[in-house]
Amino acid sequence: MIHIAIAEDDAAYAKELQSFIATFQKEYGQELHLTLYSDGQALLEDYQGQFDLLLLDIEMPRLDGMSTAQRIRLRDPEVLILFITAMPQYAIRGYEVDALDYILKPLAYFPFSQRLNRAISRLKSRAKNYLMLPIKGGSKKVDVENIYFVESQGHNLVFHTNERPIVVHGAMKEIEEKLVPMHFFRCNKGYLVSLAHVDSVQDGCAVVHGEKLLISRGRKNEFLVALANYMGGVTL
Fold this sequence. Notes:
Blueprint: E1 2-7, H1 11-28, E2 32-37, H2 40-46, E3 53-57, H3 65-75, E4 80-85, H4 88-91, E5 101-104, H5 109-125, E6 130-135, E7 138-143, E8 147-153, E9 156-161, E10 166-169, H6 172-179, E11 184-188, E12 191-194, E13 198-202, E14 205-208, E15 211-214, H7 220-230
Helix pairs in contact: 2-3
């Protein structure tokens, strides 16, 4: 499922884009989920990193498409952006926000479908798994590949990543359900470890990015089996 947001203040154009996307789904057999916003401000107020692709009209009241893209880029460097405009000279500024392309008004299905297909191909080629973590003042999109381990501290969880640790309020059980299918394993009550980042097992501990995390006696065999399976059958 690919999640698309459209920010377009002209109801007629918004309806036409919605129709084009419905046609595209039938033509390509691609499952798409569409959310419509009346302008950039409405999108920005609702934005939690939940979209894969944004279609932004450049000229909108309250907050134009370029300003919307600039603010979203501060939160989400990964989302793809396509601009919609009647004036291509404005779309050229898209490089400032790493926009993929632009769609010219008046709209026509064939060029629209080409650009949408290109965007979807780009998404598939760089497919990753992300978590949206609630932080003070908003949320942060984190690539699961960059999480070394998750530590439980009372009612908080600490995500140890390739950047700084991220502290969020939450329960280990909930995050474990999300991350186990992505090759994470609970080595003890307090730690959920990314098997991809286990450097070695020493003295009853998993060494994860230089940190020694105790493997509980009851979980040791299961942990070693999970690690061996992840590594392709290498025995430890």
